Amino acid sequence: MSGRAQLMWDEDVTGYDFGPGHPMDPVRLALTRSLVAALEVDRAPGLEVVAAKALGDSSLRLVHHPDYLDAVRAASLDPSSAQERYGLGTADDPAFAGMHEISALIAGQSVGGAEALWHGKALHAVNFAGGLHHAMPGSASGFCIYNDPALAIARLLELGAERVAYVDLDVHHGDGVQTVFWDDPRVLTISVHEHPSTLFPGTGWPEERGGENAEGSAVNVAVPPGTGDEGWLRALHAVVPELLGAFRPQVLVSQHGADTHFEDPLAHLAVSVDAQRLAAESAHAWAHEHAEGRWLALGGGGYAVVDVVPRTWTHLVAIAAGAPVPKETALPEEWRQEVYARTRGTTAPWRMTDGREPHWRGWEEAGYDPADRLDQAVRATRRSVFPAHGLLP
């Protein structure tokens, strides 16, 4: 099913480091890349490892305001000069030396992957260092400096794409991407996230459905805290496939934040690595069914940096490469030793699975249960946006 795939990777992206104690520990990127290598996923016949260049200002300005770029560059040279009015120098987004260059490099990997898809050099591209979906046009937010998903989509539009779909599976609402394309009917943004009343950034209500010129282009599924595998997968499949079928995207961009996991310290869902793997398989299938196979897959949040993130994103890379890793696969001992050394004694998991077999009830088959909070959330979204696409709620 997979054709040519690219893993977008430059070792320097691990310099995206907000400092000791910050949840966005770059060790999660290093450990993911080393697990990809330890399992020999990067040797799959269908996968090429590619490093793209950092974005220059002309590309960054496709999404970000010039004064914001100036502020990031200044804070990158002198972190003490960071301006909080631009979201810099805050607890979430402390300034660090080289911040501009490394953020532009991460964005470059996502844009480079998008260009490869559009020009036919690859069918799938993965940048697990990307998915920084909270950054706004004029400010940093939520551990995100430059919004690489929005930049990749904007570049696709610049190249001539007429319809791009964005599916965000992070536990947090994809607010920055939604904001950028709020009034653009060429972009369909779908976010499945924990309810905004209980989690940052407090947006992503089902009533948020796009601007005057793009009614129904923003789709938000706000699932209740505590939602596990069955409910999360049910919500995903109750909304995404029908909308993609109606929208007919030329490219699918998906964001695979691993912070929906039950071990994640910053959120309140109860999803397993096994369900996250199934979601990646679904995104892959949707790309082939609805977007001629063009699939850009990005990382995102994920703060269980040893137990969860490396396994989830290695599965993602392997699926894109056409060489999925069997879920019962044991984690290589050399990788487990690396985890111990890099994290000063943390014990790594043993297998590529949480030992779960996720199943979910299909929306059409099982019907709507008005007493179920998850079904209420799905129903609210379908009622809000499905009619704009000619679909029955």
TrEMBL record:
Pathway: Ketone degradation; acetoin degradation. Gene3D superfamilies: Histone deacetylase domain. InterPro entries: AcuC, HDACs, His_deacetylse_dom, His_deacetylse_dom_sf, Ureohydrolase_dom_sf. Keywords: Acetoin catabolism. It comes from the Bacteria. It holds the Pfam family Hist_deacetyl. Residues 22-318 form the Histone deacetylase domain. CDD domains: HDAC_AcuC_like (cd09994). Belongs to the histone deacetylase family. This is Acetoin utilization protein AcuC. It comes from Streptomyces axinellae.
